[in-house]
Amino acid sequence: MPINQNKKKLLIIIATVVIAAAGAIPIYRIYSTPPAYTGPIPMPVQTTTLKDSSVVWLQKDTRITPVDGFPQKRQLTVDGDAFLDVADEPTPLIINTRLLQLTVQGKASFRVIAFSKEDGEEVQVISGNILVDKNYESPFNEQDTLHNSQMVMINKTIDLMEKEKFDATDLTAWRAVQHKP
What we know:
Shape: elongated
CATH topology of the largest domain: Jelly Rolls
Low-confidence stretches: 33-38
Number of domains: 2
């Protein structure tokens, strides 16, 4: 008889775990937001060279706005999808989006996907050293540093900023095509 009792307890435990997992899936789907689109990279609509020699590729519906006094005051705002090859300068380049503040230290190549109409934003780094901060008040203000083949995703709705590794192969190939004469 003890064997039947053990089997019964095991079945109850298994049933409890299955029910808990089944209940967690809808909750996860409700509160998790998929990251910004990371599919094929579109061809740029416009390429521009900033006064500090940084090169920017702008996608459709993208605006980049340097502050007055640029490049002495190395700050700009990005709204949209842009790829930047930042020039190696002693003064860091500060990039503001609606949700993020990026401090680019030295030479760097990276993509910013930050449409003001979207809940989430993303930064994908091919190379360089970029400090990332939330650009809004949050009880969870944690600074992070991105290096080669790392990315950060942020969603203000759930106040979450997450750093991950990513495969930079496609983005690196895209960049190489853009540099061809």
